[in-house]
Amino acid sequence: MLLILPLLAACQTAPGTPVANGPAQMGGDACGASGYAGLVGQSLGATSLPADLNMRLINPGEMVTADFAPDRLNITVNRAGQIEAVSCG
User: Fold this and answer.
1) Which CATH number fits the domain that encloses residue 50?
2) Is residue 13 part of a domain?
3) Is residue 53 part of a domain?
4) Binning pLDDT at 50, 70 and 90, where does residue 7 land?
5) Is residue 11 a part of any domain in this protein?
6) Model confidence at 16, in pLDDT bands (50, 70, 90)?
7) 29-85 confidence digits (pLDDT tens)
8) Burial of residue 17, with CB atoms counted within 10 A of its CB: 0-12 exposed, 13-18 middle, 19 or more buried
């Protein structure tokens, strides 16, 4: 058991090292979220999106998969149907 501890310690990230955990760290804006940032605050029903857009709509309290698809646009809406956030993933 004690022999494995040094091996586990070697797997730790050094303090101050950035960790890749979001679109900015994992390759930028592959889904084009910055182009849709102007939709935040608007009603989803009044929004026109391309039919071939690779997107995922996230409703309040809805469970989503943890898979990260850098080319997929996530659109998060509130209970009133207003867009709260757009992001890649």
Assistant:
1) 3.30.10.10
2) no
3) yes
4) very low
5) no
6) very low
7) 999 999 999 999 999 999 999 999 999 999 999 999 999 999 999 999 999 999 999
8) exposed
Give the chain's domain count. Answer: 1
Distance CA 15, CA 75 (A): 33
Q: Which of 34, 14, 15, 13 is nearest to 23 (CA)?
A: 34
Q: Please report whether residue 45 resides in a domain.
A: yes
Label residue 25 by pLDDT band (50, 70, 90): very low
Q: What is the residue range of 62's domain? A: 21-88
Residue 49 to residue 29: CA distance in whole angstroms: 18
Give the length of the chain.
Answer: 89
**DSSP structure string for 16-40:** T-----STTTTTS-TT-HHHHGGGT
